[in-house]
């Protein structure tokens, strides 16, 4: 159980000191920090992601196994005392348990490289020029025609050591990044870049604060390693190509500057001097080791002279008076482990891509709930396709980097027993084979992702086709409304034509009246005898006759209007249905020969020869006296009747869709044009 002191410390961490409410941990994306928030709104920024800096002096180092001549590396040993003049921002009280002597660090990682990238990098750094190296930054000059280029402090000075144009490049990098006031860092290390993607950062620790190289604390060394990890990423970001930066940004989801690296710590002596297994005590010693090599895995004595190796998840510690005897094997192992770390991140990136594909699939299945989902789906598919292509390219770089890799072999007759033990412990041959198997397995995952992307694209196309179909249906409905308006206008036009005839007749009679005066027909003898005396002289009779004549005329006009209305707007029944049944082409041709074909259309495409014929039937009893327009669409090459279109004016005789379908199928049956049972088709 916890005592009161520790309990109070835990309580002060997870509970607010003002409101005594429990904190909830959240991530602030904008500031890239964790925040502690209470339900009442209190927010406290966590300092857990803050790094602690120490003052130190380092000299560049590269093992002889990666050098092929060239000038020697620079030594800053004469500046070792300068670190003691600097300060630190360490807030913890350090309890130093393990100390190292004459420490050399090699930090390794794998970056997608190839022959062309190495050639371009050598050209970029001026390796082949008389004046090599220079100051480098990843910033882009957006005003190249200007006479000045402004950049914040933080450039890298590069001096070439040796190179081969298509194989490798070795150089020294002196980092000049700004630090907090009082922090003094002479950060100078060697960099080895190989065309197989192996990147190695090497440095010799001359001093950390007031500790010279003979007494280096692991607590201090862990702070130095964090600084080297961050600054080495910035250096690579300055010299990598835009294409490589894009690959790393994709791989690490925009956080490539904090990518994992593998630490190799070589020291000539360790204090306290004990057997290797004593350092894995699950107490203070092991906790200090975890700061620099990650979770400890195993510890082994290499000889009886104090040589040992302690292996962790993200690094290893080698203690030997002559560490150069093991550097070739260590560098090979570090190169393979760096690939393994990269493959682990690759596998996690695959999970992230699969999650995006699942989310995209969910959006596709529920696209009707969100009208803005289609652009989002297309954007996600586009990004996922790009990421899948980039992942495949990265995997090809990984696979190629393992093809012609030369692995060291230690013979059983080797005099150095420690080297034989180390060779068996590291098992580089087995590690090399396992990496190949992992890459082959990941190739299957990439292929599966690409197949899933193809399926999602097809589903998106189906959605687009569905939306287009709905648009077509809306257009058809609008067209139907326009047809109704047109028919209404046609009825109005008929009425206007009749009124024009009546008005023209009335006008003609009125003109005659004005030209000839009153009608003289009533003065004739026959008119007096038959019209005037019997009809016009009797009160109200002539008026009644006019009213009756007006009524008769209105009656006949009404009949005429009803006929015209029935003819133009009695309703049009349109029926279209799919058939998709095989044809007896000979009988079908005879059937068409008996029809008054009015129009024939032929379409030739990847589906074959598609023909469309249409005609107007003569009025017959089976059509209830109407003259329907019939259109058949069929595949002449593959002999299939595709669909049927029938349009008929209903009139007073109400025709139904089923009636039209039955009639046309009866015709097909009588002509024997289909190679299936018609009755089963209708049912």
Radius of gyration: 47 Å
The separation of the N and C termini measures 81 Å
The helix count comes to 14
Query: What structural class is derived from the secondary structure elements?
Result: alpha+beta
Mean pLDDT over all positions:
84
The low-pLDDT segments are: none
Relative helix content: 40-55%
Q: What quaternary form is this? A: single chain
List the helices and strands and how they pair.
Elements: H1 4-14, E1 24-28, E2 33-37, E3 43-45, E4 56-60, E5 99-101, E6 104-110, H2 115-124, E7 134-136, E8 156-164, E9 168-175, E10 185-186, E11 188-194, E12 198-208, E13 211-212, E14 216-217, H3 218-239, H4 242-251, E15 262-267, E16 269-271, H5 284-293, E17 296-301, E18 308-312, E19 315-319, H6 327-365, H7 373-403, H8 417-426, H9 428-516, H10 525-536, H11 541-569, E20 572-582, H12 585-593, E21 597-605, E22 608-616, E23 629-635, E24 640-649, H13 657-671, H14 678-682
Parallel strand pairs: 4-10, 15-19
Antiparallel strand pairs: 1-2, 2-3, 4-12, 5-14, 5-16, 6-12, 6-15, 7-8, 8-9, 9-11, 11-12, 12-13, 17-18, 18-19, 20-24, 21-22, 22-23, 23-24
Helix pairs in contact: 3-5, 6-7, 6-9, 7-9, 9-11
